[in-house]
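Predict the holo structure. Ligand: tetrahydrodeoxyuridine.
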Amino acid sequence: MGNSKWECIWENRIGDPILIDDKTLLQMANDVRANAYCPYSKFPVGAALLCSDGTVFTGVNVENASYGLTMCAERVAIFKAVSEGHHDFVKLAVTCEGDHCQPCGACRQVIHEHAPDIEILMGNPQGTFVRTTIRDLLPEAFSL
Ligand code: THU
């Protein structure tokens, strides 16, 4: 636990600085779980993606009656960021119930595509987390 060396000062809506440290990013990931659309699994997942300019994009899992169309929280956060023109990602926090939230294989491939050097914080609602990297989660990744 504890913060890694990369930290970011961000401004809130009234211009006060906010430090986006690991705890804050995990809290954002956990808070956004309230927006998860998961009527089938009833398993809300939240993600918060920190960009190098300090912007944070959150994401939740969005399920579908045709189960295979479900989109995971991590990919929602990444796709939101990319579609807003962001490409430099520093850290991704993910939380769900359980010990700590491990991104699925599909998400690992997508995370690697956009951020092969990113750090990942795998957390839970209690606030504890495991720190890792996409390189450790997806060794020998496929890329072109
Ligand atoms: N889920 C995620 O959002 N991220 C993951 O990395 C693993 C799984 C979601 C998909 C589905 O809505 C629910 O968790 C149960 O699998």
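Residues 21-137 form a domain with the Cytidine Deaminase; domain 2 fold (CATH 3.40.140.10). Helices lie at 22-32, 73-83, 105-114, 134-137.
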